[in-house]
Automatic annotation (TrEMBL):
Pfam families: Aldo_ket_red (PF00248). Residues 18-313 form the NADP-dependent oxidoreductase domain. Coiled coil: none annotated. Keywords: Oxidoreductase. PANTHER family: AFLATOXIN B1 ALDEHYDE REDUCTASE, ALDO-KETO REDUCTASE YAKC [NADP(+)]. The keyword Oxidoreductase applies. Gene3D superfamilies: NADP-dependent oxidoreductase domain. The keyword Flavoprotein does not apply. Transmembrane segments: none annotated. This is Aldo/keto reductase.
Length: 339
């Protein structure tokens, strides 16, 4: 397999067609194997994956340190091609509770200083606030990132989970490379207003949750017991009748995948890839086995008949349950309905 590349928007860098989301290697999906996580990052780099995504609040800095270790121990030939995307701004207490977001310019620069140290790099390639701070205009937050760019600490401005209006305001302040936002067969809300706005402005989309946290991977089962530290245990789409409904969708998708001779995960990832070269799926693989499966999606070609079959199996809006618990949905600028 030869890794395809694409531009991260009209102002961003060249990146691999798939990126690696590293969150699950440290947090929110239960216990993870550190050695396997680092081996997975190395395998991704070896396969030509250049975009690594993390957040400074994933296990309170643990994930950044893990990514930093993986980069430090990778061969120079692949390490030097790696680009790191960092989300910041989420506030947490010692018990792991979420307590809000901070997008003030002074906070932006403070967060960046700590991330540079934990990652062991001299610059962050794409820097973005994880959620819009309702008390700070996006212009101020993006303006602070622009100042970090001027000083060489950051290369590009990114956005995360914001709506079309906020995207436009941010882009009027400084060039924006990409918007990171959930996008999958069962999370297609960006198609209404957000995706048209990013395309109008030449901003790429880095799509996370392309397998809906494993729900549409083809590997999740009805009787699976989730660890208390696995946030999916509290996710509406993984609850009761919602879960059964959603797994029924997966079985319909499995029929299409079987007809193509590919896995459910591969056809779900291939569907996101088919949405346009301006969309870069982030694969949340925590093992080399899952990474290899995900990379196989690059070899899956979907024709019109395939796309029609996928749409029939999993129509837009077919999923049961919101993508986050209600308290977290309230923090999503991308989910606010404008009048």
């Amino acid at each position: 397999m030869t890794m395809r590349t694409t531009s991260l928007g009209t102002t961003g860098p060249q990146v691999s067609a798939l990126g690696l989301g590293c969150m699950g290697m440290s947090a929110l999906y239960g216990e993870a194997d550190r050695a396997e996580s680092i081996a997975t990052v190395h395998a991704a780099l070896d396969a030509g994956v250049t975009l690594l995504d993390t957040g400074d609040f994933y296990a309170m800095g643990h994930n950044e340190m893990l990514v930093g270790e993986a980069l430090r121990t990778a061969p120079a030939a692949t390490r030097d091609k790696a680009l790191v995307s960092v989300k910041f701004g989420a506030l947490r207490d010692p018990d792991g509770n979420w307590t809000g977001y901070d997008g003030r310019p002074a906070a932006v620069k403070n967060f960046a200083a700590y991330s540079l140290q934990r990652l062991g790099v001299d610059h962050i390639d794409v820097y973005r606030i994880a959620r819009l701070d309702p008390d700070v205009p996006i212009e101020e937050t993006v303006g602070a990132i622009a100042e970090l760019i001027e000083k060489g600490h950051v290369r590009h401005v990114g956005l995360s989970e914001v709506g079309a209006d906020t995207v436009r305001r941010a882009a009027a302040t400084a060039p924006v490379a990409d918007l990171q936002i959930e996008y999958s067969l069962i999370s297609r809300g960006i198609e209404r207003e957000i995706l048209p706005a990013t395309r109008e402005l030449g901003i790429a989309v880095t799509a996370y949750g392309v397998l809906s946290r494993g729900l549409i991977s083809g590997h999740f089962t009805r009787d699976r017991q989730l660890a208390p530290t696995d946030f999916r245990a509290f996710s509406p789409r993984f609850q009761g009748e919602n879960l059964q409904h959603n797994l029924n969708l997966v079985e319909a998708l499995r029929e299409v995948a079987d007809g193509k001779g590919v896995s459910v995960a591969q056809i779900a990832i291939a569907w996101v890839l088919s949405r346009g070269e301006d969309i870069v799926p982030l694969i949340g693989a925590r093992s080399r086995e899952r990474l290899e499966e995900a990379l196989g999606a690059l070899d899956v070609t979907l024709d019109e008949a395939d796309l029609a079959a996928i749409e029939k199996a999993v129509p837009a809006g077919a999923a049961a349950g919101e993508r986050y618990p209600q308290a977290q949905m309230a923090h999503l600028d991308s989910e606010r309905r404008r009048v």
